[in-house]
Amino acid sequence: ILVTWTKGFKCSSVEGKDVVSMLRKSIKKRGDFDIDIVAVVNDTVGTMMTCGYDDHNCEVGLIVGTGTNACYMEEMRHIDLVEGDEGRMCINMEWGAFGDDGVLNDIRTEFDREIDMGSLNPGKQLFEKMISGMYMGELVRLILVKMAKEGLLFGGKLTPDLLTTGHFETRYVSAIEKEKEGLQKAHEILTKLGLEPSHEDCVAIHRICQIVSTRSANLCGATLAAVLRRIKENKGVDRLRSTVGVDGSVYKKHPHFARRLHKTVRKLLPDCEIRFVRSEDGSGKGAAMVTAVAYRLAAQHKARQKILEALKLSHEQLLEVKQRMRIEMEKGLGKETHAEATVKMLPTYVCSTPDGTEKGDFLALDLGGTNFRVLLVRVRNGMRRGVEMHNKIYSIPVEIMQGTGEELFDHIVHCISDFLEYMGMKGVSLPLGFTFSFPCQQTNLDEGILLKWTKGFKATGCEGEDVVNLLKEAIHRREEFDLDVVAVVNDTVGTMMTCGYEDPYCEVGLIVGTGSNACYMEEMRNVELVEGEEGRMCVNMEWGAFGDNGCLDDIRTEFDMAVDELSLNPGKQRFEKMISGMYLGEIVRNILMDFTKRGLLFRGRISERLKTRGIFETKFLSQIERRCARWWPGGQLSGVAAVVDKIRENRGLDFLKVTVGVDGTLYKLHPHGLFLVGLAPSARGKLNQRLFLPPLPVPCSFSTVMRETVKQLSPKCEVTFLQSEDGSGKGAALITAVACRIRGA
Q1: CA-based angle 389:395:398, to the nearest 5?
Q2: Helix (H, G, I), strand (E, B) or coil at 641
């Protein structure tokens, strides 16, 4: 869009219009050829691109010719007019208008003001009128006229040619300043203007031209130094090494302008190494190069999109995933089909939620990933009903996660001992709830047989064993304290109970963290693995293994398969590997590797670090996208939709109102703020569209987006998402409190 004409142009009906559209219209009107206009660039940008082809340090373009302007590479984080913080973008400064606000009034002369008043655009492009080639000759002419009128030149004689605007051309300034023939040229030019110059007149003219061109070079150098200083500060370096690509008739043809400009810049920037490169091929070559780059990027973008298309799941595909989840849920619940089911639907023996009469002090352990938490939970009833919590977080080193079971549980007990000492409670025996977030077969509330490790754990001697017994044995080995392990629960169950304490509609728990899982309150008549028909029981779905039987193979990509093959448990937990925090970063790393091998990223150069498994952490996705989007794994919401539909159908309801308690680090990365969905196609966008929801209005809150998306997948359910503020450990303590209440009744 042409903002304003400069350099003497003043064609009507162009300002405010798209010049590319006007050019296309003219080409079409002509009718004898067609051209694809890929890019419109300023001559400064073209100059920078031309010089940058040979010198990769070139990050500034400068034009000093008929007009003057500059461009440079600015950090995206500083460009408020454009979305995004990463990388850099070339800024066309349009510095010819510098001073239009009066900031240069103290250095503008009477000659500058006279030129401005007589121009086509008074009050505009004031800096350009002080330094560019279009006005340099005219500045000299006005000075000569004034001096002649005052009798300081030509014996006070004036001629019509000298009094005519534009008759003293800028090229005359260059000719007069030449070292050897300058005075002779001055005599010839002045004679041509009808004057009879003396030798002293010619010397004076030479000095006037020198002063005018030097001022121009100094002003240009000062402003250029400001640009380079900004680049230096942006980069945060002690010494800047940079290159300026330069074009324009004044810079190229004036005998001393370039040298004076360089000297000024180096004087003002002693801590910078600045190289100046002349654009020999003009800005047109740069425009062609921008076009070539645009074509290359377009081709690469198209190739990337084709590869990433497999990651884009349509609304129909999400509904199909939901239906397949329902089928696997039924298999897990059935006695005859349970053994072959991938979604195990494990009974938890949690059948009651808090009723408000629970009270007492309870310990809770929360083991579900690389961090382990020990909590003291004080439950109060009556008028002061509430929960008071104290907790401490401990890390679990990889060598312990993948060592022996004895080492793992000894480490857990060591952490409990440290916590009791920290709380001043050593020797106290308390009821304990154990949040153990791995697939377990339960035959009672205080018994959990570990079926298989997930989330990178591989401690030996644990699978097939009762984790409560393993914990008790470790406590006895330490011989410092004794604890009554009342309940072992999954983190999803703990989350549901935590949120259920606040919201009685909460009947679903969802974890979106290192791993992913869900639980919900199922009718006892449908839980065929447990005797009894009355009431409800919380079922731990263990949906991370959804797809292990091949039912998701049609939507798994080559990147999912690569992540799976190199994991600790190939062929297992396939759904979890497509959607959970432990694997999303690795999926992205595999995509980056593939793109780079194909020459679609990083100029085809793969760094050694990028080849390292796990180097691209899932948190990087959030950091990269924090200004672009908020994301949520759409596959998980297909699962949620399957669960809430089943609850509704179990109860024979036309409409269900239900709350889902949610916890997990991946969820908590984006608990608030804008949620941009249905993004424009991009490498990020396509991955997200598998993880994202269908398009929704923006901006809107995080929970609103989830609620509306599940509504699209399950239109007969109103689902609210409630974040668990206190984690699943509090839920384990509440389950323990409920069990103690029931046991004591």
Answers
A1: 150
A2: helix
503 is catalytic: no
Query: What order do you get walking across the sheet with 88-92 strand by strand?
Result: 88-92, 68-75, 58-64, 240-247, 272-278
pLDDT band at 383 (very low <50, low <70, confident <90, very high): low
Question: What DSSP assignment string belongs to 179-218?
Answer: TTTHHHHHHHHHHHTT----HHHHHHHHHHHHHHHHHHHH
Name the residue among 561, 584, 560 with its Cα closest to residue 632: 584
Longest Cα–Cα distance in the chain: 123
Least confident segment among 117-131, 232-246, 587-601, 729-743: 729-743
- The length of the chain is 745
Q: Partners of 366 in the beta sheet?
A: 373, 435
The answer, yes or no, to whether residue 632 has pLDDT greater than 60, is: no
Q: Which of 260, 304, 326, 373 is catalytic?
A: 373
Supply angle C-alpha 511, 516, 520, rounded to 5. 55
Mean pLDDT along residues 136-158: 96
Higher pLDDT, 194 or 356: 194
The whole-chain average pLDDT of the chain stands at 88
How many DSSP H helices and E strands does the chain contain? 25, 18
What's residue 131's pLDDT?
Answer: 95
Give residue 713's pLDDT. Answer: 92
How does DSSP assign 258-303, residue by residue?
Answer: HHHHHHHHHHH-TTEEEEEEE-SSHHHHHHHHHHHHHHHHHHHHHH
Q: Give the ranges where 581-633 is alpha helix by DSSP (H).
A: 581-597, 618-625
What is the Cβ-side half-sphere exposure of residue 666, based on CA atoms within 13 angstroms? 25
Give the pLDDT confidence of 645-662 residue by residue, as tens digits. 999 999 999 999 999 999
Catalytic hit among 132, 437, 622, 714: 437
Sequential DSSP letters for 526-544: G-TTSS--SSEEEEE--GG
Residue 482 and residue 161: Cα distance in Å, rounded? 110
- Does residue 699 have a cis bond before it (omega within 30 degrees)? yes
> Which pLDDT does position 703 carry in this prediction?
58
* From 366, 491, 560, 645, active-site residue: 491
- The pLDDT tens digits of the residues spanning 256-266 come to 999 999 999 99
The pLDDT score that the predictor gives to residue 679 is: 27
Q: Is 373 a catalytic residue?
A: yes
Q: Which domains does the chain have, with CATH numbers?
A: 1-40 (no CATH), 43-281 (3.40.367.20), 349-500+727-744 (3.30.420.40)
Per the annotation, the verdict on 491 as an active-site residue is: yes
Which DSSP string do the residues of 361-390 spell out, in sequence order? Answer: EEEEEEESSSEEEEEEEEEE-GGG-EEEEE
Closest CA to 454 of 414, 374, 511, 393: 511
Instruction: State the Cα–Cα distance between residues 590 and 48, nearest whole angstrom.
Output: 35
Question: Tens of pLDDT along 255-294?
Answer: 999 999 999 999 999 999 999 999 987 777 888 888 888 8
